[in-house]
Write a structure and sequence with these properties.
single chain, 244 residues, mainly alpha, two-stranded antiparallel sheet, 2 strands
Length: 244
């Protein structure tokens, strides 16, 4: 396949993924977007619950399954290796768009914070969470994480190399700051509806399972280096590292 075609594929995949992530900020927080987690017609609770659980399950299977080493090996037998990460990113973005489109709101309230000061604090934590997610992607290589480096290096005729193990900034006090940011963003809300609670709880459960699987892959890739890091640094909650 032409390197130019592979490069364009990676760019399109990246743009779709970034658009889905940007929409997600508005979707989860009920800001700006035409359809959010609590907007739209409210139908039967049972139907909404089934549909939303299926959507969350589809994302979890796709997002975690395609990240596993065995699936990557199988995928690169079908598509050129530089396209593997872009394909993962593309499908993740498309599944998110499907979730936004088909999500059924469940608007019964579990809690509501009416005091302006505390509502503002929760909104600030919400955006802080998303900020941590974005910052953390750049700390470990945003372009590599979203497939741009792989397709651009291939286009330039360079070998695609796995990133070296590094622990910059936030990674010195928490092993998975991206997941930590997501947890803040999902739970920090002044109005927690049943639908929002389902998404936050489902996403948190997925994060815990996904972290276990990801750590297994990281140990297989980096060996004793990662084992030592794992013994010293907290998994999901930022905390001063333990002494060796």
């Amino acid at each position: 396949m032409s390197p130019v075609v592979i490069l364009l594929y990676g760019i399109v995949a990246y743009l779709i993924a970034m658009a889905s992530a940007a929409y997600g900020i508005g979707f989860v927080g009920n800001h700006w977007v035409p359809k959010s987690i609590d907007s739209g017609p409210v139908g039967p609770l049972g139907e909404a619950l089934v549909v939303d659980v299926m959507l969350l399950g589809l994302f979890a299977v796709q997002h975690s399954g395609m990240a596993r080493r065995a699936f990557k090996k199988a995928l690169t037998a079908i598509v050129p290796e530089p396209m593997e990460r872009s394909t993962y990113v593309l499908l993740s973005g498309l599944v998110l768009w499907l979730l936004y489109w088909q999500w059924r709101p469940m608007t019964d309230e579990i809690w509501r914070v009416d005091k302006p000061i505390w509502s503002t604090v929760l909104q600030a934590v919400y955006f802080l969470g998303w900020g941590i997610v974005l910052w953390s992607t750049f700390l470990v290589g945003h372009a590599y994480l979203f497939g741009l480096k792989q397709v651009s290096d291939h286009w330039l005729g360079k070998d695609v190399k796995e990133p070296e193990f590094r622990t910059p900034a936030l990674y010195k006090i928490v092993r998975h700051p991206i997941y930590f940011g997501f947890i803040l963003a999902f739970w920090a809300t002044p109005v927690m509806t049943l639908g929002h609670f389902l998404l936050a709880g489902g996403a948190t459960g997925y994060i815990l399972v996904g972290t276990f699987l990801e750590e297994r892959d990281l140990v297989a890739t980096f060996g004793e280096t990662y084992e030592t890091y794992r013994k010293r640094v907290s998994m999901l909650i930022p905390w001063p590292p333990r002494r060796p």
